[in-house]
Design brief:
Elements (H helix, E strand, L loop, with lengths): L2 H9 L29 E6 L7 H16 L4 E5 L8 H10 L4 E5 L22 H8 L4 H14 L1 E16 L14 E4 L2 H9 L3 E4 L5 H6 L5 E5 L2 H4 L8 E3 L5 E9 H5 L3 H35 L3 E3 L3 H11 L1 H10 L3 H13 L17
Parallel strand pairs: 1-2, 1-3, 5-6, 5-7, 8-10
Antiparallel strand pairs: 3-9, 4-7, 4-8, 4-9
Amino acid sequence: MNLRTLCLLLATLPLVMSESAAAQPKATAAPKQAAPDMQTKTLRLNVPVSAGNPIGENIEDFRREVERRTGGAIKIALAGKEQVYQDNEVISAVSSGAIEMGATSLNQFAYDVPLAGVFLQPFMFNFDALVRAASKPGSEIRTLIDEEILYWTNTRVLWWQPRGSTVIFSRKVPELNPAAITNRQVGAPDDPTKELIKACGGSPHLVPTSDLYGALEKDNIQITMTDIFGVTERDLWRVADTIINTKHSPSLFIVVINNNAWENLSENQQQILSEAASAVQEHMWDRFAKVEADAYAFAAKKGMKVYDPSPKEIVAWRECSAPLLESYVDRIGDLGPKLFAAYGKLRTDPCCNGAMSEPIPLDLR
């Protein structure tokens, strides 16, 4: 199958909605309680979102578990307000060692690590089971991306967190399709979203997530694409009246640690961090359907209209965005065949093929 055919097939897939430092002996690699080291290590962790949201709660669970299992030998210190780095600053801050750990959106890695952008390709990862399987520790896709992140940014991935599907928020534009956004001012929190808006006829404006509220309020933009939790965490319900439920890509947060800081931990401490990270990731997925449903319920309670595009409108979105996949494959180069072969396996796996009428082979060789 050639690349052009692949893009067209992906463009016409049926819509799938989201599913409602002393080293310890190796013999003690999985202790219930690690003996404390002689010297306490403090790892500062930057969280550029409010502490009360699900991501903040998840990170608190991680902090408590690490401190419990290390007997206090490792302290996770959440950065104070004066130390908080914004989403677009986290990678460089952790990479340079300005702070040991940080949480930021996957979108922020897409420029330095093109392979990470596969999750941002419209309608490729548009249901929860597929995203969960692909981001699971040890999965082929997760392993490929984590290795590239380490190589290019000097940061090591600890865990991935689901953050809701990407949807469209609009102000006085009730029913949105590609034709409706032509020449409209559309806020794009990152470069991949900017590319999507441009491909589908809109006029994209890069607006950091933290500034979307002000841009909508001042009518600098009438539309933006961001995750559903913008309705609660960014108060977008106050400045937008409609959510267009395209769910065209997952929104994911990644927690990383500076690799030098990681190497300075004992082998046992590294294992504790890895196990705690895997545990909180799974816990978040277990409760994610309810957390996301609560966000939609909150929007409805505040008077927002949630508009579900018709199948015809979804096909239009798929078709206008399909060329983005071709340019993406060009950017990732030699790792493309491995990445898409792993994706193809997932789409035929029992975990992730229930929404497909038939498997779609994705061999790019």
